[in-house]
Each structure stands twice: as C-alpha cells, then as structure tokens.
Amino acid sequence: MATMFSPSTFSSTTTTATNTTITSPKPPPTPLPPRSHLPIPPSKPLLSTLTTTLTATAAAAAILTASPPSLAGPTATTYQIYYGTAASAANYGGYGGNSDKKASAEYVYDVPDGWKERLVSKVEKGTNGTDSEFYNPKKKSEKEYLTFLSGFRQLAPKDEVLNNLALSDVNLQDLLASADNVTSEERKDEKGQVYYVYEIDGVAAHSLISVTCAQNKLYAHFVNAPITEWNRDHDLLQHVHESFKTIGSF
C-alpha cells in the first residue's frame, strides 16, 4: 500500500527548507601581537656596579670614623730651674736644705720634668762635697748632680782638675778607667767666667762635666747616662749640661 503525502505536508516541508538560514562560520580571531619584553641586562655588570658602590660606601665610612691626623709635633721637654746653695756640711740643715734657696743660691741648672731629687745627707756632703742630685726614675743611673769644694780661687790645668775630681768620686774613676775617649775644652760665659768642659765616652756610659771656680769654691756639674739612654736622650742631656752656671755676687 502506497503512502500518500498530502500537498500541505509537502508544502510545509518545502517552506521550512526555504526559510532556513545558513549561518556562515565566524572567522578565526585575529591573534594578538606578541608582548614586547624589556631586555634584561647581564648579571655581571650589575654585580660589578653593586660591588663598586659598597666599596665606595665602606671607604667613606672609614674616612668619617678615622681619627684625624695630629698636627702637633713631638712633645717638647720642659724643665724646672734648680737653685743650689752649696752650703757647707756644718751649715746644712739635713734633708731638704735651705727653705729659701733662690735667695741664697750660688748656682743653677735645669731639671727635666719628671725627674726626682735624691736627698743628700750631711755625711755625704761632708765626704765628697755632693750638694744636689736628680735622676730619671725610669733609669736611676741617668742623672745629674753637683759637687763643690771650698778653698779654690782659680782653676788648675784641665787634666789636673779632672784627676782631682776622680779622687772623691768612685763612679768617675771607673768611667775614666774604661773610657774610649776623653775630650776637654775651655770656654767663657758672657761675664768672662772660665768653665772647663769634659766629655767622657765610656764603654757602658757617657758623661758630660762642667767645672768652674767662683767665690773661692770649685763647682763641678755632672750629667751621666748609660749608652742606651745617652743615645736616646742626647739632646735632653746636652741641654741639662749646658744649663749649669754660677750666679750671685762674686
């Protein structure tokens, strides 16, 4: 049995087919342009720059924290003037001597700051004529002292004077016995007063001696030092030696 199609059905089918819209496929999306990338510098230059910066910073910090250089030169030695009375043992008032030494002083010499006075006993003064003595507390054999003898109106010949001084000074005897060289000269001060100046260069010690006569007394000023101290303190010891002079009315 054949199947019959009605015209309406056919017509409906045709109409449906006619009115169907065929949608065109959408074009593919346009791809976005690739992102631009900033160039990354090599790591080595960056590290070098960082190192340079840190080095400069450390150097600046060192300059700021470092102590400024001292503009002052070596510290100059200062001295005190000692006034000696050369009082006889009979008139010596024991330790400390005359309370008004400056008014009755017969001689003066410079004493470096820091040196100590060794008090001379009446017995010692009467035995070898030692009137005053100062020493370096760091090295007691580095010292200066003065002896005097009464009854001398004028100086004897230079060699004779030095030998007479050694008779009452055991240390001077030993120094002369071991001396490599002994020099002597005569000089005058601004008043015309004569001084004998001796320099003794020994194996282990050095000595500078200045001798003069005034007011019927012979004054001998000694500056002694071991070789090590002599080499180190040469200028100081030379200054002390040259500072000795007699004063007062003669």
Q: Your description of this structure?
A:
- The chain has 250 residues and is α+β, with helices and mostly antiparallel strands.
- The chain has eight helices and ten strands.
- It has helices spanning 7-19, 43-65, 101-104, 122-128, 158-167, 170-177, 227-232, 234-243; strands at 79-84, 107-112, 116-117, 130-136, 139-150, 179-188, 194-202, 205-214, 217-226, 245-246.
- The strands form two sheets. It has a seven-stranded antiparallel beta sheet, with helices on both faces. A three-stranded antiparallel beta sheet has the order 1-2-10.
- It starts with 6 loop residues before the first helix and ends with a strand.
Provide tags for this entry.
250 residues, alpha+beta, seven-stranded antiparallel β-sheet, three-stranded antiparallel β-sheet, 30% strand, globular
Instruction: Return residue spans where pLDDT drops below 50 for at least 5 consecutive residues.
Output: 1-23, 60-67, 94-98
Q: Tell me roughly what share of residues is in helical segments.
A: 25-40%
- What value does the average pLDDT take? 78
SS summary, helix count: 8
Number of strands: 10
Query: What is the strand content?
Result: 25-35%
Structural class: alpha+beta
Q: What is the C-alpha radius of gyration, as a whole number of Å?
A: 53 Å
Whole-Å distance between the termini?
A: 183 Å
Give the helices and strands, then pairings:
Elements: H1 7-19, H2 43-65, E1 79-84, H3 101-104, E2 107-112, E3 116-117, H4 122-128, E4 130-136, E5 139-150, H5 158-167, H6 170-177, E6 179-188, E7 194-202, E8 205-214, E9 217-226, H7 227-232, H8 234-243, E10 245-246
Antiparallel strand pairs: 1-2, 2-10, 3-4, 4-5, 5-9, 6-7, 7-8, 8-9
